Amino acid sequence: MRFGFVGSFGSPEQQVRLARECEEHGWDGFFTWDGVSLDDEGFGATPTWDPFALLAAVATVTERITLGAMVFALPRRRPWELAQQVLTVDHLSGGRLVLPVGVGVPIDRAFTSVAGQPTALRDRARALDDVLDWLERSWRGEPFDHDGHWTTTGTFQLPTPPVHGRVPVWPVGVWDAASPPLRSLRRALRWDGIVPQVRGDSPEGAEPGPADLRALTQWIGEHRDVASEPFEVVHQGRLDDDPATARQQAADAADAGATWWMESHWDPTTATPEELLGKARQGPPAL
Questions:
Q1: Which of 127, 191, 221, 238 sits most deeply, having the most CB atoms within 10 A of its CB?
Q2: pLDDT tens figures, 124-136
Q3: DSSP-based helix, strand, coil % in the chain, nearest 5
């Protein structure tokens, strides 16, 4: 299992420093997040930064770690502009970019305060699929037409990503053992990994436990068409300060099928830039 660190708070300069410290102290990935203006009491006063600009800066000062965001909200992005941003960071980093993607949070004013943006979950899900299809076509390196939420005709031709001609995509998938919501799960199966969540109203309740991960990975194994291809299961959590407890947390997630542990701290009252830096310097547990 690999270990990523989410830079949830801090200025751009602090985020770049945090990414460098993550690489120095043994983390396998650095991830920012993607929001514009959140209608939330805790996050409302939190500055937000363009994730691709941040990752471009991080790409130039790191050499090894995987880069991404938890998660990119694709339905509110124009796919041709997104494709250019993705390619820029991927080329700067030598192919280290990955794309955890989702429908976006409904409290983001980039959805609710902009006329014409999809706001209903069904519409955001359709837009997500449409943007992903546009991206995949753009990676072929030849002009193409696209008919969907955004209709484009044979005018776009972009360079291909530098590694394997594509960028790995990890969609969010919602798991419910009693009644799996097949649309989000089957979307993930078409790509390279999954960021699992379980049904729940709060971010704390949305993180799956080992039992959820074990049931999900069993379901994935039964439904994937190409079981031999690598497939990432990206678990979000918070490692305990006690090293032995942290090792056990990570081992439990790995035994349940997780391939990434994403260290994620979202409470703005406790996850200060200084606290995040100290946590990153502890490094991931050795399994």
A1: 127
A2: 889 899 999 999 9
A3: 40, 20, 45
